Amino acid sequence: MALTKVWLEQSDCISCEACESNCPEVFEMGDGECKVKPEAADPAYLGPISEKVKEAAAACPVECIKFEEV
Ligand code: SF4
After folding, report:
1. Nearest CA to ligand 1 atom 4
2. Residue owning the nearest CA to atom 7 of ligand 1
3. Could you read off the pLDDT of 1-57 as tens digits, one per residue?
4. Is 3:50 a contact under the CB 8 Å cutoff?
5. Which of 7, 20, 35, 65 is most buried (CB neighbours < 10 A)?
6. Is residue 34 within 8 Å of 13, Cβ to Cβ?
7. What pLDDT score does 9 carry?
8. Ligand 1 pocket: which of 13, 33, 37 to mutate (most atoms <8 Å of CB)?
9. C-alpha 13 to ligand 1 mean position (Å)
Protein backbone atom coordinates (compact mmCIF):
# COMPACT_ATOMS: atom_id res chain seq x y z
CA MET A 1 0.00 0.00 0.00
CA ALA A 2 1.21 3.49 -0.81
CA LEU A 3 1.74 6.11 1.83
CA THR A 4 -0.09 9.39 1.41
CA LYS A 5 1.11 11.16 4.54
CA VAL A 6 3.86 10.80 7.14
CA TRP A 7 4.49 12.76 10.32
CA LEU A 8 6.17 12.57 13.71
CA GLU A 9 4.80 12.75 17.20
CA GLN A 10 7.55 15.21 17.97
CA SER A 11 7.07 15.18 21.75
CA ASP A 12 7.86 11.44 21.87
CA CYS A 13 10.95 11.54 19.65
CA ILE A 14 14.24 10.87 21.45
CA SER A 15 16.42 12.08 18.53
CA CYS A 16 18.12 8.71 18.12
CA GLU A 17 18.77 9.36 14.39
CA ALA A 18 17.68 5.85 13.36
CA CYS A 19 15.06 7.08 10.92
CA GLU A 20 17.51 9.41 9.21
CA SER A 21 19.85 6.44 8.76
CA ASN A 22 17.10 4.13 7.55
CA CYS A 23 15.30 6.58 5.26
CA PRO A 24 17.17 9.83 4.58
CA GLU A 25 14.76 10.57 1.72
CA VAL A 26 12.15 11.53 4.31
CA PHE A 27 13.76 12.09 7.71
CA GLU A 28 16.51 14.47 8.69
CA MET A 29 18.05 15.67 11.90
CA GLY A 30 18.35 19.41 12.39
CA ASP A 31 18.93 21.54 15.47
CA GLY A 32 18.91 18.41 17.61
CA GLU A 33 15.52 17.21 16.53
CA CYS A 34 14.15 14.97 13.82
CA LYS A 35 12.06 16.44 11.02
CA VAL A 36 10.10 15.22 8.05
CA LYS A 37 11.49 16.82 4.91
CA PRO A 38 9.08 19.20 3.14
CA GLU A 39 9.10 17.16 -0.06
CA ALA A 40 7.61 14.22 1.87
CA ALA A 41 4.33 16.13 2.07
CA ASP A 42 3.81 15.19 -1.58
CA PRO A 43 2.14 11.76 -1.99
CA ALA A 44 3.80 11.43 -5.41
CA TYR A 45 7.20 11.63 -3.70
CA LEU A 46 6.20 9.38 -0.83
CA GLY A 47 4.45 6.64 -2.78
CA PRO A 48 7.45 4.98 -4.45
CA ILE A 49 9.39 4.81 -1.17
CA SER A 50 6.47 3.67 0.99
CA GLU A 51 8.05 0.42 2.12
CA LYS A 52 11.24 2.15 3.16
CA VAL A 53 9.30 4.71 5.21
CA LYS A 54 7.27 1.96 6.87
CA GLU A 55 10.43 0.09 7.76
CA ALA A 56 11.84 3.25 9.30
CA ALA A 57 8.62 3.66 11.28
CA ALA A 58 8.82 0.08 12.49
CA ALA A 59 12.42 0.63 13.57
CA CYS A 60 11.67 3.79 15.57
CA PRO A 61 12.29 2.82 19.22
CA VAL A 62 9.46 4.95 20.56
CA GLU A 63 7.02 4.38 17.66
CA CYS A 64 6.51 8.08 17.05
CA ILE A 65 6.54 7.92 13.23
CA LYS A 66 2.94 7.94 12.03
CA PHE A 67 1.59 7.51 8.53
CA GLU A 68 -1.53 7.13 6.43
CA GLU A 69 -1.77 4.82 3.44
CA VAL A 70 -4.29 3.90 0.78
S1 SF4 B 1 13.70 6.88 14.87
FE2 SF4 B 1 12.00 7.76 16.09
S3 SF4 B 1 12.93 8.45 18.01
FE4 SF4 B 1 14.59 8.12 16.54
S5 SF4 B 1 14.94 10.17 15.61
FE6 SF4 B 1 13.50 9.05 14.30
S7 SF4 B 1 11.43 9.66 14.99
FE8 SF4 B 1 12.90 10.20 16.62
Report:
1. 16
2. 13
3. 999 999 999 999 999 999 999 999 999 999 889 999 999 999 999 999 999 999 999
4. yes
5. 65
6. yes
7. 97
8. 13
9. 5
Domains annotated for the chain, with CATH where assigned, are: 3-69 (3.30.70.20)
Give residues with Cβ within 8 angstroms of 15, minimum separation 6: 29, 32, 33, 34
Which residue ranges have their beta carbon within 6 Å of ligand 1?
8, 13-19, 27, 34, 60-62, 64-65
- The amino acid at 16: C
Distance 70 CA to ligand 1 centre (A): 24
